[in-house]
Amino acid sequence: MFAEVLCVAVALVLYVNTLGADFCYDDRLQQ
Questions:
Q1: Residue 31 DSSP code
Q2: Enclosing domain of residue 28
Q3: Which domain of life is it from (predicted)?
């Protein structure tokens, strides 16, 4: 159970980091 929660937490962190990177990349393109 703990391993499953840990995997989900890591997946969410990676997902949020990817969204943040995409937003930063879009901002650079607009500038």
A1: -
A2: 1-31
A3: Eukaryota
